[in-house]
Amino acid sequence: MRRHFVLHTPCALLAMALLAVAGNVAADGAPHAAADASTTTADAPARDDSLYRALGGEQGVATLVEALLQRVYADERIAFLFAEADRNNLARLIREQFCNESGGPCAYSGRSMAESHSGLGLKEKEFDAFVEDFIDAMEDARLPYRTQNRMLKIFAPMRPDILHK
Amino acid sequence: MKNYIFGNKCIALLGVLALLATGTATAAGTRQLATGGASTIEGSAGGGIVPWAAITGYGTGDEIGATAFASRVDTGDYRLDSQGAAVGLFNRIELSLARQDLDLITLGPALGLPGAHLRQHVVGVKLRLFGDVIYTDWPQVSLGVQYKKNRDFLIPSVVGATDDSDVDVYLSATKVFLAGVGNFNAFINGTARWTRANETGLLGFGGPLHSGRRLQAEISGGVLLSRHFAIGAEYRRKSGNLSGLPEDDWRDLFIAWFPNRHLSLVLAYVDLGTVATLQDQTGWYLSLQGAF
Ligand code: HEM
Ligand code: HEM
């Protein structure tokens, strides 16, 4: 009996993990579709703003973006890349983007990721340093781990648009 | 005794080489925490017994990363100590060395060979074919080769193993799902290994039951509970080639701790089934990895 249990626990756990992942991947389509729809029609009702609320709404997003830029501007691995950038304008655009992507009531007025990062020739290690600063900033803002993961999930896929441009 | 001293020197040398190799790179690379996995008993980056497609260390496409590890599995009847080092080049190629020393605690005296050990060396090369564990929609896929040389072939040859060295070839696919399970990050890894090893090679290669390589499935998966802790499970199919010494598949449940980019610690409860006639081999696995 004991042995039977020991043998099957890993398999059961794996099966559960697989099912959960599969379920999540399948369910993925819905919120994205909703988000896409609402960017075109400003006040679509079905928009899921749970992440925006988890970030702490407008004030929370502002705090997070400020923490991010503080980290980035103090990070010698990447700070030089921001030498030419207008910090206030950048903060405003990132606030808009975070708000919009997390389901909040904002429109993003900046350029596309590919456009705004072109000419920077960003390397993988610079991207990773930025992500590390981003995670640290989310820690600074005391966001729960699972909220951090949801943010990473949204922004990680933008990597190919940002790298090596 | 002499061997032992040489062995420790060899490990120290590997450590120094690894440090030199990374001397020019930024400390410990910049990839995100835990993305280099731990070190398997065979030296390749992965969990404890199943290799991942991940390249060891935290180096990105422009960096070199290196790791060194020591691990122990103890079931009471057996104790397997492994040590080794690995270098990850530009998140593309991984080179690894490991040596294993299996103490036949119970079997040795029973065979009239008290203090008997089975030792093996493993040289590994892993090539990332495509994908990124985190950033691509498809998994990271790598092809690996492990050259294994059994250093105590007397016992394996007596029980019918035909060769004291051989090559395992494996294909691994690993994917991290950000916010994948209840908004926790999760990972899944599948490995197909083409091998003719008996008990991973500690009992040599080939035998009366089968002489050629066979395909074995290995799978592992888990969840990152926080930035620093992961839990998961591994399963490794095995089928030996020795008549009279059937082998069981291996499984374990692990918890891994990644306090920072330089250190990781894995603790696991392992179930190795029947190993060389001794049944119900369950016990503990502890592995320490340093990354540079
Ligand atoms: C997923 C990750 C990232 C997101 C979501 C992001 C977001 C943004 C946004 C919204 C803008 C303003 C766009 C505009 O000017 O219209 C911007 C600009 C900029 N980003 Fe990023 N960024 C990311 C990664 C990075 C990385 C890794 C770096 C460098 C290490 C970087 C460096 C810059 C710089 C220097 C600008 C200013 C460009 C300019 O003013 O012309 N970004 N980013
Ligand atoms: C962590 C890495 C390694 C360590 C610590 C290590 C250690 C040792 C030691 C202590 C010996 C015995 C020396 C003696 O007999 O005086 C030895 C012999 C040997 N090692 Fe390694 N070794 C390592 C990696 C390798 C690798 C990667 C290979 C395969 C390419 C290898 C192949 C051999 C061979 C062929 C012998 C001699 C075999 C014999 O005498 O029959 N070793 N090694």
From TrEMBL, chain A:
Record's keyword annotation contains Iron: yes
Molecular function per GO: heme binding; metal ion binding; oxygen binding
Signal peptide: 1-22
Database matches in Pfam families: Bac_globin
SUPFAM superfamilies: Globin-like
CDD domains listed in its UniProt record: TrHb1_N
UniProt keyword terms in alphabetical order: Heme, Iron, Metal-binding, Signal, Transport
Domain of life: Bacteria
Binding site for heme: 117
Protein name, as recorded: Hemoglobin
Record organism: Tahibacter aquaticus
Automatic annotation (TrEMBL), chain B:
This protein's name: DUF3034 family protein
Signal peptide: 1-27
Top-level taxon: Bacteria
Taxonomic source organism: Tahibacter aquaticus
Keyword terms, alphabetized: Signal
